[in-house]
Amino acid sequence: MTTSFCPLPGIPYTGTIQGNRFSHSTLLLQAAVEGMGIAVVPRHYVTTELSNGSLFMPFGPPVRSGEAIWMVSSESKSQDRHSFILREWLRQRQTTKDTAEDKRPS
Prior knowledge:
3 helices; mainly alpha
């Protein structure tokens, strides 16, 4: 979890993140479903759980994090045709998204 999700508007978070850490989002989500705590994840990870009521959004609607998403691969796969197609598709989606956001009224 990143500390960018912790502060209240205008109040910086200076504490430490404590508690369990999970190596895979599936484990994190299962822990949240079982009542072990809160999971901060992209909404599309939990559409089923939100629909069936096993999870809910206790703090209201989703917020933009401003965090980057990184595509990573092994060096041997970096020049793979399928990796190239995916990388270019992601770049195009981000460019389209950035352009749409720039056109939004303030």
